[in-house]
Amino acid sequence: MRISLLFHLILFLCLSSTFAQEEIKGKIQDQHTGEVLENVFIQQIRLNKHSHSDWEGRFTLKQVQAGDSLRINHLGYEEKFLIIDPQKKDYLINLSPAPLQLKQIEIRPQKNTLNEIAQIDIAVNPVRSSQEILQKVPGLFIAQHAGGGKAEQIFLRGFDIDHGTDIQISADGLPVNMVSHAHGQGYADLHFLIPETIEKIDFGKGPYYTEKGNFSTAGYVDFQTFDKISESQLKLEVGRFDTRRMMAMFNLLPQQENSHAYLASEYLTSAGPFESPQDFKRLNLFGKYLTQIGNTQLKFQASTFSSSWDASGQIPQRAIDSGQIGRFGAIDDTEGGYTSRHNVSLSLRSLQSPKQFLETQIWFSQYNFELYSNFTFFLNDPERGDQIRQKENRNLFGFNSNLHRFFELGSWEGKWKSGISLRKDNSLNNELSHTANRRETLERRSYHNIYEENTAVYSEISLNNGKWLFNPGLRLDYFNFSAQNLLVEAYEKEQLKQAILSPKLNLIFSPNPRWQFYLKSGKSFHSNDTRVSVAQRREILPAAYGSDLGAIWQAIPGLYIDMAVWALYSEQEFVYVGDEGVVEPSGRSFRKGLDLGIRWQWSPRMYADVNINYAHARSLDEEAGNDRIPLAPSLTSTGGITAQLGNGFSTSLRYRYLADRAANEDNSLTAEGYFINDLMLAYDQKSWGFQLSVENLLNQEWREAQFETESRLFEEAEPVTEIHFTPGTPFFLKAGVVYRF
Asked: How many separate domains does the chain show?
């Protein structure tokens, strides 16, 4: 009897030792290059618990038993399974690179599943130009109407966002939107980004993201450039309309393990399709250095950008109908401008413990802008014309810091994130003047020094039990507005301070790897121009309240369908009146709509996608029939098909569709829609490649930007109100060759 009891006791102790819960650690790297891999998904199958690798490629898993299976998944690499060895506590895991495919996407309870799917879009159809960058966001449309050098007009979710009023745009943590800008609130010029340096695009629609503050009512877009590149490359492109582009990227530290650096440059020139050559020139230089010092990662980057151009401006249909000008002619061909931006950024990411890390960034930008426009021709000045100059010199600087801490709460895995940010803008000699021929200043109408400061604190918690994600957050923004009117003799500086609190709540449910359901809700805001805020002391930080109800479904491996119904209420719309240099409030609004996206990769060589976006936008302070929001898009769609033909050949055919929409409040004028096709053919080998692209394949006559405008031509006795537009690019053929080394 005693022998039997002793035997069972020894057996129990052995089994307990064999299946004791332990903690294991590991490091994940690329099998071929040895580079560590960040944000790899590691799943413990038995308990359905998971972890992610940090920027050193390291991870930790608790409650692991000998014999447990781990599943390692990372986009762009082959999936791997690992059996836990009872004698091993530290693992070095090598992953083999694999072509990006949709079936690699994991549907898990996380907020950025659609972003991961969009990464496939970018890999299959790389960004070809700075104008195309924003259109990688599903449902987002752009329009250019000033010779290529001006920031694009943006449309998203029933918003005519102008140049950035209701979408927050950033690049590597640097803000792109300019507050109290000479040409309009939220002006966002992305032309300082070199397309080949972009690694991924992080985006979100709606006011649901705690880190995002000013302008994030319709959503946000954050571009992230490569921290390191594996090879250098040279690219040369030529196209119609005397278009020339040269791009170079150099890997400066190819042999270093813990330090990486590269330099990229771009030069672009084009005459454009217009009768008066636009003489467009753009120069970009960009450099980044990354190094690892102990548990701290240091990142330094700097860039400089300058651009100059002439423009033919928006033209009235009546001038074309009368034969006065051609479709690509101009009433005032002395429009155009100059802009530049110089950026410096220093970022630190410090691992303070296996459960906590800190991110801090300090940045500075110096920005110059000068734009000449003529919207109304001879309406206000029948002799000299109505040309205006908008000009400013700006210094902006700031910092942001985020603390990330991971914890466990019973069966829930938690992440707490809190941060603080500061942004300060000094816009000096912010000017609106009446000019003639870009040489003579006839009258200064507005002339200010503008100082604006935004301090914010925010915090959010994410709780995840493998099926549910519960994500509440809270953000507090504090603004200090100040403006000095330089047109008055006496020193006069007006000041105003105001704060706004923005709560968020997101619920995500993934019952299995094929489905995700989500309910997102939150509040955000867009600020008013400082000059208007301090003068009127109202409509300073109007809020927007929104909600999304949606789902993502993996119907079969390689086929993903996402759909969302959404609604957004805005306390105040803003309309920029360019020739007066003011922002006018236009009342409350309500938008609702439907987003649908389908992506299908039925073989490694064939990929198709389509996005359909519907929005119903109305003003709440106007009577029915007069409540349209001018230029608000109602129906848009983008999509295409890409084929890898073998032996290095590939082709892509894409389309974009924008339906007719109201150009004014009573819908008596219509902004015409369009359907445009683009074609791309490419041939790639290891060290070189060739690409041929065609924009507007069918050579459609289309209107890129359109506005209801009251104007008067030189010989006209009375003004006329009608659609003024910028003609869209005709058939545009471009060829390029790239050499990699």
From this structure: 2
